[in-house]
Design a protein that fits this description.
- By secondary structure, the protein is of the alpha+beta class.
- It has one domain.
- It is 41% helix and 10% strand.
- The chain has a four-stranded mixed sheet.
- Strand 1, helix 1 and strand 2 form a beta-alpha-beta unit.
- Helix 4 runs antiparallel to helix 5.
- It holds the Pfam family DCC1-like.
């Protein structure tokens, strides 16, 4: 069931150095007016998402509570930012560009531990990462 939110929300993996660096870049350069939250500290139930999905991909929850993940989420974030970002966000959500965006997103997500800022912890499921304290059930 979709849950209304006051502002769009971008949910990411806060334990992943590459993910965190990417989100910091977006916060500095792409102003989408969204709340940004690491899934480890977000109220996922209130957002209508599972920890498993949040661990698998970045999520965008719009004001109507609709959830998008992966490349679609990034496209929606860019669209919400407006200006030149909007055109890029719209284009990357239209086939065949969306197919390529999805493929690139999965390639990067599956190899994020190899990306700049990535760590070996990025390879592990959230519950098995160093310092994990029962987060998998969140």
């Amino acid at each position: 069931m979709a849950r209304l939110v006051k502002r769009p929300v971008l949910v990411y993996d806060g334990d992943c150095g590459f993910c965190t660096s990417s989100v910091r870049f977006l916060e500095r350069h792409v102003h989408a007016g969204a709340t940004v939250a690491a899934f480890q500290f977000a109220d996922l139930d209130a957002l209508g998402v599972t920890a498993e999905r949040a661990e698998y991909e970045v999520l965008w929850i719009d004001r109507a509570g609709r959830v998008s993940g992966g490349a679609e989420a990034i496209g929606r974030l860019l669209t919400a930012a407006g200006g030149p970002w909007k055109a890029l966000g719209v284009v990357m959500r239209i086939a065949p560009v969306s197919w390529a965006a999805h493929g690139v997103y999965r390639l990067v997500a599956n190899n994020r531990h190899r990306m700049p800022g990535g760590t070996a912890a990025c390879m592990l499921p959230a519950a098995q990462r160093p310092g994990a304290r029962g987060r998998a059930g969140r």
